[in-house]
């Protein structure tokens, strides 16, 4: 059954969490604001997120759908099929959440969406010359990007 193409709200909710943190300085747990426990989020990922989440993240990253598809490891044909079905599969959903969380973390560190976008897309020496989004195509790579963001946040030369 084809689902609606609009976002179920995770990406827009995550953007609101980042904005609230930036505006108030209060560190809110993402689950508290989004009303999702880790168990509920895992269930959503396993079920597959709505394709609208893909579009929301592309918008937040100020990227084309083709760029985001490449960072998520999706071919054009697969993206086309997902748009028709209205839903990502579990693996694609997990990758999308991984990239969204990196964007949220980069927004916290750089204190603006534009600075975060720029940093995520620019090659980094600390990541063997790859962009953070390119390097984050695996869980281990994403973790290294998170570590690098932590180092930058604390002023450690990287």
Number of helices: 10
Task: Give me the Rg, rounded.
Answer: 15 Å
**Which shape, going by the Cα principal axes?**
globular
Order of helices and strands: HHHHHHHHHH
Helical residue percent?
A: 55-70%
Question: How would a crystallographer describe the biggest sheet?
Answer: none
Strand count: 0
Beta-strand portion reads: under 5%
First-to-last CA distance = 48 Å
Give the structural class.
mainly alpha
Poorly predicted residue ranges = 1-8
On the 0-100 scale, what is the average pLDDT?
Answer: 86
Descriptive notes:
The protein starts with 9 loop residues before the first helix and ends in a 5-residue tail after the last helix. The protein is mainly alpha-helical and 158 residues long. The longest helix has 21 residues.
